[in-house]
Design a protein that fits this description.
This protein has a domain of 46 residues. The protein contains two helices and no strands.
Length: 69
């Protein structure tokens, strides 16, 4: 019986320690917002690279046409 009580108290202490180490809702919200901002920046970077590629292709095509004639 004493062993069961000791195990139960150890379990309660572990749960209490886990509860103390859990981040607050505000901290979790900050992490979510940071993650969303990073994903948004990745989307913007991909769009910018695509537009830059299109612009460079357009310039190359214009130079090829003028060199042929």
């Amino acid at each position: 019986m004493a062993s069961l009580l000791g195990t139960f108290l150890t379990l309660i202490a572990a749960l209490a320690e886990e509860e103390l180490n859990r981040p607050s809702a505000a901290e979790e919200g900050k992490k979510v917002i940071r993650a969303m901002l990073i994903v948004g920046l990745i989307f913007i970077a991909v769009i910018a690279l695509g537009q830059l590629s299109r612009w460079a292709s357009h310039r190359r095509e214009g130079r090829r046409r003028s060199a042929q004639y």
